Amino acid sequence: MTTTPRLLQREQRMKFGTQMLAEGVRFRLWAPNSNFVALKIYDLDLVVPMGKLARGWYEVEVDAARAGMRYRFVLDDGAEVPDPATRFQPEDVDGPSEIIDPLAFGWTDIGWRGHEWEELVLYELHIGTFTQEGTFRAAMDKLDHLVELGVTAIEIMPIADFPGRWNWGYDGAQLFAPDSSYGRPEDLKALVDLAHAKGLSVFLDVVYNHFGPKGNYLAVYAPLTTEHYETPWGSAVNFDDAGSTMVREFFLPMPATGSMNSISTGYGSTRCTKSATPASATCCRNWPSRSAPPPMAGTCISWSKTKRTRRAGLSAATMARPGSITGSGATTSTTGSMSR
């Protein structure tokens, strides 16, 4: 007798971006450098001023807003910008953002517990080049091949929304949104859900110390970057300069949500890449570790919380310890070192 898989909905609430309500949607934007912000919803032909709150926040609730509708924020100079916490950019990085309901997808991996650290055989996977189609859905058809090879985990190279059709992933502009050339958020979730069904852990490669050269507008109306550090890719993210508290809060939900769009804990792990600031570099090497606490609260955003890593079958102490996993004739680094 066959049984229908139990469906599970997952959500992580955030201060930024959109929040589905019982009736309508709440929109929030942190824009301390702007004196006025309005919300523009194209599907409703609506432009409504947002209420100004303390500490540079703007907020408005729209009862008629629904998932699938597209919107932008309008600044005091008339510029129309996408949501920095957008979950999907169907018309690329400069286009309007789409309202996504994170509870719409029904997960079937309720029993997934991940692998022990020593069981991991990682396959680094670039969605755009892994298949001819270069999409999340096409990658699903190749998972059996990886299982046959002896792979137990896939590490997906960065998928944060980038400008254009082709990119290795290190020019991400919208960090909460998977790139639309690879598919929609629910396609990514379907890939992760199927990978778990086939016994594969899923890791996500992330870039948190800089943005790509095009498509991120947050620095226009908020202190997103700092000149205290230099990177070869542009201004460093402001994790420890004036106004950095809210910047850190913007990044902190990403290890648990990020481009996965509210996947719950336990699907795998993020790892540090291209960390350039001294504080974040030290943090990524040593945290999570009881003997080496984070050097600065809020800066250690590239590792998962201890509880989450244990649900993935990885102890915090093991994640902090340098090492490598060898499989199929290749060795893949699994430390928190600056590997890119």
From TrEMBL:
Stretches assigned to the Glycoside hydrolase family 13 N-terminal domain: 15-78
Region (Disordered): 320-340
InterPro entries: GH (IPR017853), GH13_cat_dom (IPR006047), Glyco_hydro_13_N (IPR004193), Ig-like_fold (IPR013783), Ig_E-set (IPR014756)
UniProt feature, compositional bias: Low complexity: 323-340
GO terms classed as biological process: carbohydrate metabolic process
Keyword terms, alphabetized: Carbohydrate metabolism
Coiled coil start-end: none
Official protein name in the record: Glycosyl hydrolase family 13 catalytic domain-containing protein
Organism whose genome encodes this protein: Devosia aurantiaca
Lineage: Bacteria, Pseudomonadati, Pseudomonadota, Alphaproteobacteria, Hyphomicrobiales
